[in-house]
Predict the 3D structure of the following.
Amino acid sequence: MIIINNRDKLEWQKDMTVKDLLDKMGYKFSLITVTVNGILVPKEDYEDRPIPDNANVGVFHLAHGG
Amino acid sequence: MKDIDKIFERNVPGTREILSKKTVAIAGCGGLGSNAAVALARAGIGKIVIVDPDVVELSNLNRQYYFLDDVGKKKTDALTSHLLNINPGLNVESHFIELTKENICQLFKEADLLIEAFDKAESKAWLIEAWCTHFPDKPIICGSGLSGYGNTTTLTVQRSGNIVMCGDFETDMSMGLTSSRVAIVANMQANEAIEILVNAGVKECI
């Protein structure tokens, strides 16, 4: 089981990547920051970075304004 | 007690001694950066490194920590003046340049943590990646979603490793910006920075 943002749960599957998770969860934001177990995943690694079972994943939308 | 130390006599006992030895970097001196810097100066931080390539405009005064007679000045100069007017003992290092992937290492190498205070989401994205690449063991505190007005209860803090995110993660600046809401998020960032520095680490969350 994967926990997302300390709130949502997703059943873990073998060879699941960050991109798979984002697609399954319906994240469509073009600008997001993703962490897996507290480590940032660079955007270019989304398609290749596997997610381990029991991972804590953070998906944060970056909104304009500052 | 020196007169200048009286500035901090109502601060939480023990915090000033720790914070006075710490350095905080702030990327951007707009609504988030200027307000967060002021909060950190009042908390007794020892050194602040500020970077911004812009000058103060009239349209900044609705939310940024500047005044009418700052208009036309470099934001880094105006903010330095205000910070030293709060605590003359504060060490302010200011850079009137654009922060880039190339100069971030040099500019921020001495910082204990970074407050991300850019306005464009694309800039926030590269800054987070660059910081985590160059300084994986140092915290970065970001602001995301601070536009509109009201909706105070939607503003939250999310932590994951050394990344701390403050805001509502939704509202976009195209809907307009209100001083109170921008300042809340800026002060959330400063508050997180103070807690991390005093407690020597980010609270476990994600």
User: Anything to note?
Assistant: The mean pLDDT of chain B is 96. The CA atoms of residues 34 and 79 of chain B lie 7 Å apart. The first strand of chain B starts at residue 23 and ends at 27. The two ends of chain B are 43 Å apart (CA to CA).
